[in-house]
Amino acid sequence: MSGLGIMLIAVAALLAGYFGYAKWLEKTWGINPDEPTPAVRINDGKDFSPASRWTVFAHQFTSITGAGPVTGPIIAAMFGWLPALLWMIVGGIFFGAVQDFTALYASVKNGGRSVGMIIEDYVGRTGRQLFLLFCWLFTLLVIAAFCDMVANTFNGFSKTGAELMPNAAAASISLLYMFVAVLFGIYLKYVRPSAGVQFVVGIVLMVVMLAVGISFPIYADAVTWRYVVFAYLFAASVMPMWLLKQPRDYLSMFLLIGMILCAVVGVCIQNPTINMPAYVGFTVNNLDLFPILFVTIACGAVSGFHSLVSSGTSSKMISSEKDMRLVGYGSMCVEVVLGVVSLVVVCAAASNGKLPAGTPFQIFSGSVASFLTEIFGVPQQVSACILTMCVSALALTSVDAVARIGRMSLQELFMPPAGQEKTAVQKLFTNTAFATVLTLLGGYALCIAGYMSVWPLFGSANQLLSALVLTGMAVFLKSTGRKGWMLYAPMTIMFIVTMTALVSQVIKIVKAAMDGTFVMMVHGLQFVVAAALIVLALLVVYHCVLRLRDAAPIIDRQKAG
To answer: 176, 301, 523, 552: which has the fewest C-beta neighbours closer than 10 Å?
Structure first.
């Protein structure tokens, strides 16, 4: 099978999903372009800040496109390229994009409220509290895994002490992105350029930052970069969206879209031959295709984390309801393209049915960098720097969004019922600075153990969150008199898959304790978090299913806070 053929099949299916299935969903549920969105009505200059459809798309896409679409498909290729491809296409069209779009839609229709707050409206306060606690624990896993990954990517020294120029250059470019984004945000807010001028200025800034970063690399170790990343996360969590997060996501979009286009063009021109079997077997390396495939490929098919972005930040930026399909459904389709391209690249680089050595990021970035060099004539060292930056941007643009969402989840968890005064404890935990610090401290504690220690839990928790969100959204749709049957199969399948994976993880931890290989900082931490996630998930589903069974249609609850 040719790599180009696989990619064309995937793109055709995704286009059909966007212009067919997504448009049908939009028509079935109904939109009102004349209804002022929460971003327009509230517009507090902090969390609520209306933006153009492409600015919101850039935020959504860069925030949800983390390490998953590259890492997951490459790892899952051990079962063969066909199972991974089918899951990304089917999962992306009918699971992931639907979840992202529904969460965004429900949030906009409910005053920009997060999924947790919407669950309170339609399920009850207990369901909301359980869901928010689940979300907060999940954000700690994301922060830990992605921050450690970014810090190691920026590490300017090898194990032998040799300088790693691509890593140092990527770190330098990332720092420039943080500071230039603030200036760009001020420019956008007060100059208000047209979309065309904004695009040109963004391209120029990106090129300048790449040139300066490559010319002046910053060499520091992983520990130092870990501190820098957490300091940046604090700023990104408390600063107004328009001042840092929005402009940085817009500028990062050029990197990510450029990387995808480079990979797509490379596949189109070279049309690499797939050197992996279509199907290897159900059990590979003592791992079963079910549930491992569906947990490993998360962001490339369906990811619960995406719903937190849709309802936590993007819904507060939407200027018109007609933009929701592009932002919610469209951004996920583009992410699936990245996942499919990653699969093609790694399977083309395989030899005799064996995947190449190295981490998924190393395999992917090395292959795409070779496209830049061979097709476009970019010097090898420069292409390596650019791709290292692109790969780190995948993780960094997700983790700053999830840090903000974690802060908001903790604040909402301690928010009193409407009409009640806050207690002293509630005032403390709903304070923006305190909630941010507590969230980052929790993430840092997990980060110390290394991302490989929390990655197995992250994958399972991520997919389980998707099942919970789909269940909650089904309640919302039924309660508001809309059709929600299209969510029943995805939410059931994802719940079975992820609970199976989590229970399997707990069993492995118990076996480690019995055979004497138990390590408290690794296995003990995993056991506590896994057990908490299982219990919380069961309780959330119990409350949601009860409400779904008994729900009577009511009108949308358009709330402003």
So the answer is: 552
